[in-house]
Specification:
With about 500 residues, this protein is of the alpha+beta class. It has helices spanning about 10-30, 40-50, 65-70, 115-130, 145-155, 195-200, 210-215, 250-255, 265-270, 285-295, 300-320, 325-345, 350-360, 380-395, 400-420, 430-450, 480-490, and strands spanning about 30-35, 75-80, 85-95, 100-110, 135-140, 160-165, 185-190, 215-220, 230, 240, 505, 505-510. The strands form three sheets. Strands 1-2-3-4-5-7-6 form a seven-stranded mixed sheet, with helices on both faces. The protein is elongated and about 90 Å long.
């Protein structure tokens, strides 16, 4: 039985969770209750030391910490056979915005493991959590322990969310030994149909063949000798199947030194969602990107792909600005790219399909910001205009206009990123549909204001126009103004290729 009689509510989902937990406890032949006294929590400390074989000098958790957690409203429970404590579980709440309970440790003594004591503890924890208005429990487990994987994914219907390499660092106990503490984070959505089904005693099917028939790919298999065998999947499957040793704890004891069947080989062969491991980096960005792609490190591939793309875009934009590209050319270019983006993204799904196929691949012509689904990425046209526009405006209208142009680009890009972060945008969105018209508008306004002429460039040996003052100091008479305008017209057709050290449209030595 459980201690839920004192927590009864009028919420049908919570009452159903209570009933499922009490049924599980009755089936396991145990009593489950929340713990808060010092004596009970000291018994939990001793229980964990016995399960993990740590000894008194390296406890898994201390009684005073459990006492503080219980007082703060966190979850600490124990499973009893008569007066004997045979299992315990404790957890603490995530940040308020997450609305989840993080279950840190759950363990039962070996002689009661086949009585579903752990299952009853998790159902007790589920009902306790739902009664407090929280709908999710998350925890970590060792991905190489097969029975834990089945318990978490099939029997409880928790969803794997993240691979955490060496999450806890070295763990000095009799179960983990000297192995790395890689973990998988799972999230248990407490009111999902799968969760309600498993709590009623119907485990979720865990059939690898059925998963393969639905498009899953095998990423790691076990060879005839029991060694891990990596399989190249092609990168298109949304679900990857990973083999694990039959008994990792026995392997830890019988295989203390690295061999083809050792634990480090299994861990390094497993596909991960985070960069880690892999071969050493060969020299050069291209070789490094190819190496990371071969080692299945998608985040590293994206980063190394974006670096040469960014360098290339900045170089091309600077070259165009230096070679005489004017504001009117940039405005036309922005307008054409804007029209193309409207068709490719707004009226068709060309860009969505293109991004889905290339993001994350080495040398993809699409600088990626994230790799989530859908990915957030900047097209080459977007990135080129963000760099080119301020450079050309700097030459044509001066520093103030260039700063305004750069600010406009940053605001547009940041706004689009914010909308993605808030979930307002979920598909492809071309920033040029907002940035393009602004580029054209700024060119039109600056040109009409007459500020596009700027200070004229001078070829070597050309005498400066006469600018003698006429009238008050610092002002220019009509003749001087006509001379300046004439000089500007005469030199406007010449490309601004002044030698280094001279002034070309107000920029010393050209655009850096």
């Amino acid at each position: 039985m459980t201690d839920f009689l004192r927590d009864r509510t009028e919420s049908p989902p919570v009452d159903a969770a209570y009933a499922a937990a009490e049924t599980a406890a009755r089936t396991a032949g145990i009593d489950i209750r929340c713990l808060d006294s010092v004596g009970e929590l000291e018994a939990v400390r001793r229980l964990y030391e016995q399960i993990w074989r740590t000894g008194e000098n390296s406890p898994v958790v201390t009684a005073d910490l459990l006492r503080a957690l219980a007082k703060a409203g966190s979850y600490v429970s124990g499973a009893f056979v008569g007066d004997e404590l045979v299992g315990s579980c404790f957890g603490f709440f995530s940040p308020p915005a997450r609305a989840a309970l993080h279950s840190h440790i759950a363990g039962v003594l070996p002689h009661v493991r086949r009585r579903n004591v752990g299952f009853a503890l998790k159902l007790h924890q589920r009902a306790w959590t739902l009664a407090r208005g929280v709908g999710e429990i998350c925890w970590t487990y060792d991905p190489l322990v097969r029975r834990n994987a089945y318990f978490n994914i099939a029997k409880l219907a928790a969803e794997p969310a993240e691979y955490l390499p060496d999450f806890y660092g070295p763990i000095d106990d009799g179960i983990n030994g000297s192995d790395d503490s890689d973990r998988i984070l799972v999230r248990w959505h407490l009111t999902s149909p799968d969760s309600e089904s498993v709590c009623a005693g119907r485990p979720r099917p865990a059939d690898a063949q059925a998963a393969r028939s639905r498009g899953a790919a095998v990423a790691l298999a076990a060879s005839a000798t029991g060694a891990p065998s990596t399989v190249r999947t092609g990168g298109n499957a949304r679900t990857l199947l990973v083999a694990v040793p039959e008994d990792i704890e026995a392997l830890r004891e019988s295989d203390p030194v690295p061999t083809p069947r050792s634990i480090p080989r299994w861990r390094s062969s497993a596909p991960r969602s985070e960069p880690g491991g892999g071969p050493g980096r060969p020299p050069g960005l291209v070789a490094a990107t190819a190496g990371c792609a071969f080692a299945d490190l998608p985040v590293a591939v994206t980063a190394l792909t974006d670096v040469p793309l960014a360098i290339a875009v900045v170089g091309v934009a600077n070259m165009w600005a230096q070679s005489g590209m004017r504001s009117v050319h940039t405005a036309w270019f922005a307008g054409m790219l804007c029209c193309y983006d409207l068709v490719a993204t707004g009226l068709t799904s060309v860009m969505d399909r293109f991004a889905a196929q290339v993001v994350g691949l080495p040398f993809a012509p699409l600088p990626a910001v994230t790799q989530d689904g859908p990915p957030v990425a900047l097209g080459l046209g977007d990135l080129l205009l963000l760099v080119l526009f301020p450079l050309v405006v700097l030459k044509a209208f001066g520093r103030a206009a260039a700063l305004l142009a750069a600010g406009v680009g940053l605001v547009v890009s940041a706004s689009v990123s914010l909308l993605f972060g808030l979930g307002v945008l979920t598909g492809a969105f071309p920033p040029l549909t907002a940035l393009g018209p602004l580029i054209v508008l700024q060119h039109v306004l600056r040109s009409r204001s007459g500020s596009a002429s700027g200070p004229p460039s001078r070829s070597p040996g050309t005498a400066a126009p006469h600018t003698a003052p006429d009238g008050p100091a610092g002002s220019r008479g009509p003749a001087a103004r006509r001379s300046i305008v004439h000089g500007a017209r005469r030199h406007r057709a010449d490309p601004p290729t002044a030698p280094a050290g001279t002034r070309s449209s107000g920029v010393a030595g050209g655009v850096a």
